[in-house]
Design a protein that fits this description.
Layout lengths: L12 E5 L5 E6 L6 H6 L6 E7 H17 L3 E7 L8 H13 L7 E6 L1 H13 L5 E6 L2 H7 L4 E6 L2 E8 L4 E5 L8 H18 L1 H9 L6 H18 L14 H10 L6 H18 L7 H11 L10 H8 L5 E2 L2 E9 L2 E8 L3 H6 L3
The protein binds glycine (GLY).
């Protein structure tokens, strides 16, 4: 896959996020072996617990744990089975018991190492253990680097849907080592690419053109930095998603329904790509989106490798969307793009959602 071609190593970049206590997002090559030293600048901890999944454990956990040991921390490591199926309260509780058995105190910290599942769950455990301890995000997937590691959304899935229990809990630091990109398979690259296209489509037409014309690996540092800047600005303006932050959910209402309908066989990124295409077809049909936008968006998504044919009937997806976080009373908040680079939030009666989506098909 051409996305695998990687850039010539760039200087590390830093983006400052103001939300929570304020924190840096560091993006660059060779960051993992220096993670412990970087953490010293922000942590007052004596002990850290690395929280990671069984795949990332084999690849990066030794390097990270060793870097914290070299920096003078006592360390321990908790490994859960890789995959969305582990993202539940059982894993969180096992980790919390582990933190207690290893005597982590309020001064200490969790290091969430891995993709979105590790970051969301590790952050959530940190938010409730002893009523909240520090945590650091070390994303190792593209999706986690450009989206889930920044902004403080933490949580787990419950039987009625994705991410329906959790907390806003901002990390103390985010460290993305661009060298980890080389270990991603095509599916993981697609997952991140969907969030990059989303970020560009809602906020930055120049980024959209850049991503359309280049393999992600060739423009990695620049793209991750820009996505983090965009997300950071949105989160700084609306940390708890009272308004503006909702634009980050573009494509996600249908995406969460697709993921749930597939029993989580369809990955988040592929579902987000379909969700963005479905929403833009519908909003364009309703006259809310500049004509031709859906075609531009779908062409880019297909060029990146996404298949956009819907696998599930709209009535099933709209029924599942009824238990989404974005519902309020009998209405639901939705996000459309007005054109590439600009998004708006609107709401519809849940009863009218299926007709709205069908109009775009
Ligand atoms: N992933 C959307 C958000 O963080 O708000």
């Amino acid at each position: 896959m051409k996305e695998k071609k990687t850039e010539i190593a760039q200087e590390a970049e830093t983006v400052r996020i103001r939300a929570g206590g304020g924190y840096d997002v560091r993006i660059g090559s060779g960051i993992l072996p220096e993670a412990g030293a970087k953490a010293q600048e922000v942590l007052k901890a004596d002990r850290i617990a690395v929280f990671t999944d069984s795949s990332v454990d084999r690849l990066y956990a030794d390097t990270v744990e060793e870097s914290f040991r070299r920096a003078g921390y006592e360390t321990c490591r908790f490994v859960f089975t890789a995959g969305e199926a582990s993202k539940n309260m059982k894993t969180v509780m096992e980790f919390i018991e582990f933190l207690s058995r290893h005597h982590l105190t309020r001064r200490d910290a969790v290091i969430a190492l891995g993709g979105g599942v590790a970051g969301d769950m590790g952050g959530f455990a940190a938010s409730i253990y002893l009523r909240g301890i520090d945590f650091i995000q070390i994303p190792t997937t593209l999706l986690a680097a450009v989206d889930s590691s920044v902004g403080g959304k933490t949580g787990i899935n419950i039987s009625s849907g994705k991410n329906l229990a959790g907390a806003f809990w901002q990390p103390s630091l985010v460290l993305y080592d661009t060298d980890t990109f080389g270990s991603l398979n095509d599916d993981l690259i697609l997952d991140g690419t969907a969030e990059i296209v989303k970020t560009a489509a809602i906020r930055d037409a120049d980024l959209f053109r850049l991503v359309d014309g280049n393999g992600i690996g060739e423009i990695l540092t620049q793209t991750v930095k820009r996505c983090v800047e965009i997300k950071g600005a949105v989160v700084d303006a609306d940390e708890k998603e009272g308004g503006l932050r909702r634009i980050l959910n573009f494509g996600h209402t249908m995406a969460h329904a697709i993921e749930k309908a597939s029993g989580y066989r369809i990955s988040h990124g592929k579902a987000v790509a379909c969700g963005m295409a479905m929403m833009t077809a519908a909003s364009e049909a309703a006259g809310m989106t500049e004509k031709g936008t859906c075609e531009i968006l779908c062409r880019t998504l297909e060029k990146k490798g996404f298949k956009l044919e819907p696998e599930f009937p709209p009535e099933q997806l709209c029924r599942l969307a009824g238990s989404d976080k974005k519902t309020f009373g009998d209405r639901i908040h939705l996000v459309r793009i007005d054109k590439i680079g600009r998004a708006s939030v609107f709401d519809l009666e849940l009863a009218g959602l299926e007709a709205f989506m069908r109009a775009g098909m």
